[in-house]
Amino acid sequence: MNSNSPLTTRTPLNLLVIGGEYPVGQVITRLLVSAGHQVAAHVHTTASAHQIRQNGALPVYGDLQRVGELRGLIQSRKIEVVINLESQAPNHIPLRPAHWDTESLMPRLVALQQAAAEGGASFLIHTSYATVYGDQHGAWVDETTRPEPGENELLRDALRAEKQALSGPTPACVLRLGFLYGAESTELQSLREMLIFARPLIAGKGYANWLHYHDAAEAIRRVAEAKPVGEIFNVVDNAPASSIDFLAKFAQSLGLNAPNSAPGFLAPLLTNRDQIALMAQSVRVKNARISQALGWRPAYPTLTAGFDEALLTWRTRAIV
Question: What's the average pLDDT block by block, 10 residues per block, for the chain (320 residues)?
Fold first, then answer.
């Protein structure tokens, strides 16, 4: 049997996806449904609910900081595994602005943990960021490497949330995801428009770590089924690349010239402080542990492979 097959023999689970309306949540929901699981996905809007139904899952609502509402969702659907993607909304390509609301990470996580424990869930998957290692000056790191967040409050908040996830009342696992991208990414589509019209862009020279939506989904599927309690896994592709390289490779895939870098004084106008800080870091993250433990390997190991998939999908949808 192919160890990397997305559809191996398994026992169906009842799953709750928090953040199901985000692009990565949509991809994960579709994969889990196709794998035979029963999926409920938390949403905020009726438009998102319609999309979740099209994906074959059940949309659910609730205040993410109210334990009673979350517990009711978990109990009513007999949820066994909770997948927390709420942290992933801003975790997209850093060349576009993002709102990193890390202050809400802890209260929402604590509420979710309590609700999961009281509602009978047996496992929690908390998604974090590969950026938590901080600036390692281009060195390769793995899960044994001590993160160096420095004075970056975004990374410090993310690390505190990881510790909370692993010390809570529900058995848990933490996944450190690379910057997410794929055909469903509105940020990638926006970046395409900016490249076509040769608009100035800010990018960094430090090594960053990337992850295609479909590879994120497959990793989460494997973790949900295996329930590796107490583990931290890096989930990134095989080829760290700077955001400058990301731009150059994406432009090349579109048949365009790489853009000129905008003057530094324009940076605050084109993105925000957090994104600038993340692009200034340089770290290369290894994914060997999840490969060895669960057989996961990225189907899109390089940016070029990921861009090819995105462009093919866009063509089928008449986007390009």
Answer: 46 95 95 96 93 95 93 96 94 80 87 96 97 97 96 92 96 98 93 85 88 98 97 98 92 85 47 76 97 97 97 85
Give the whole-angstrom CA distance, residue 244 versus residue 207: 9
- Evaluate whether 191 touches 112 at the Cβ level (below 8 Å): no
Question: What's 46's domain CATH number?
Answer: 3.40.50.720
What does the chain come to in residues? Answer: 320
Domain count, the chain: 1
Residue 136, domain extent = 14-185+211-236+286-298
